[in-house]
Task: inverse folding
């Protein structure tokens, strides 16, 4: 499914809790390049590969002025365990009602081991310092995704 949001659109603002329960607005990161990535579930094979790819490239991303934010339907407690287990240095936001996931057109039908299900689609948005979506990565492959983003920014 193609995103309704397009490159050069203003990124919709939102407020969600992080792994400690502290609420964050997207707008609080204005002035930085934001790598906003949506993923299906904490501590699953693909999502772990993707998160560890961001972890392993975190210093290069931050040296380019980027901040990394991951969003899934998991609870803050689940995010906390995931962050600790894999030593993830970036913010994970909990969207338990999938409101922001749907706002960013990251909810849809997917094929999970031959079974068609509804769930969070793996997508990444690069948002510039002024809050404008500069790039949308659709149908992300978890392995090597952070490197792909590094090349872009």
Result:
């Amino acid at each position: 499914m193609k995103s309704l949001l397009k490159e050069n659109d203003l990124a919709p603002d939102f407020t969600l809790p992080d792994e400690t329960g502290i609420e964050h607005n997207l707008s609080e990161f204005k002035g930085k390049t934001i790598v906003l990535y949506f993923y299906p579930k904490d501590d699953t094979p693909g999502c772990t590969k993707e998160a560890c790819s961001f972890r392993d490239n975190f210093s290069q991303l931050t040296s380019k002025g980027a901040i990394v934010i991951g969003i899934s339907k998991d609870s803050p407690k689940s995010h906390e365990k995931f962050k600790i287990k894999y030593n993830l240095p970036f913010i994970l936001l909990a969207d338990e009602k999938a409101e922001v996931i749907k706002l960013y057109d990251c909810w849809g039908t997917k094929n999970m081991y031959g079974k068609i299900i509804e769930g969070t689609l793996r997508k990444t948005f690069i948002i510039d310092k002024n809050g404008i979506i500069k790039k949308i990565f659709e149908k992300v492959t978890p392995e090597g995704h952070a490197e792909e983003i590094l090349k872009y920014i």
Remarks:
- Strands lie at 15-17, 23-25, 33-38, 66-72, 91-94, 107-112, 115-120, 123-127, 133-137.
- The chain has a mean pLDDT of 90.
- The radius of gyration is 14 Å.
